[in-house]
Amino acid sequence: MFKDRRALLALGGALGLSGCGFRPLYAPITAEDGSTADIRDDLAAVRVGNVPERSGQLLRRDLQRRFEGVRLGVPARYTLQVAVTYAAEPLGYRRDGTITRLRYTASGIWSLATLSVPPRQIAASAIPSRAIDAFNIPDLQFFAADSARDAMEGRLVDQLAEEIFRRVAMELRREREQRAG
C-alpha cells in the first residue's frame, strides 16, 4: 500500500514540475531545426580572469576547476571577470573586550563576456553573490586561530564559487535557448 502511494506521489510531483516549466540545468537544448546543444560545452569554454589577493586567487582556482572540469580540451569562448569584497563583524566578546568570534561576509560580482573582438557582454550579476561564515578566536592559541580563519576562508570561497558557477550556468543556458529560438 505504501509503495503504491509513494509511486503516485512521485508521479504527481514529476507532473507538477513539468507543468510549471521546470527544466534541468544540464539537459540538452533542442533547437527548432531538431538539433541539440549541450550547456556543458559552453561551461567548459569559460575562462576566469585574474582576481587580486590570496582569497581571490583561491576563488579563481575553484571557479576554474568547476568550469574546466565539466569537459576537458574545449577552446575558450568566454571570459569571466569576478570582483570580491570581504566584510568582518565581531560576534562575541570576552569580559575584557577582546573578540572571541568573527563573522565574515564575502560578496562577489561577476561579468561574462565573449572573447570576440569587440567583446560582447553575455551577462552580469545584478545582485552580488554572497557567502557568510564565522570562526572562533581561541584564547592565546594563535596557530588554532589562523587555522580556523583559513578553514573559514576556504568554506567562503567554496560557497561563493558554487553560487557564481550556478548563476553563470543559468545565464549561458538562457542565452543558448534564445539562440536556439
Automatic annotation (TrEMBL):
PROSITE patterns recorded: PROKAR_LIPOPROTEIN
Question: Could you tell me which InterPro entries the record lists for this protein?
Answer: LPS_assembly_LptE
Q: Mention one GO biological process in which this protein takes part, according to its record.
A: Gram-negative-bacterium-type cell outer membrane assembly
Please tell me one Gene Ontology term that the record gives under cellular component: outer membrane
Which superkingdom, per the lineage? Bacteria
What name appears for this protein in its UniProt entry?
Answer: LPS-assembly lipoprotein
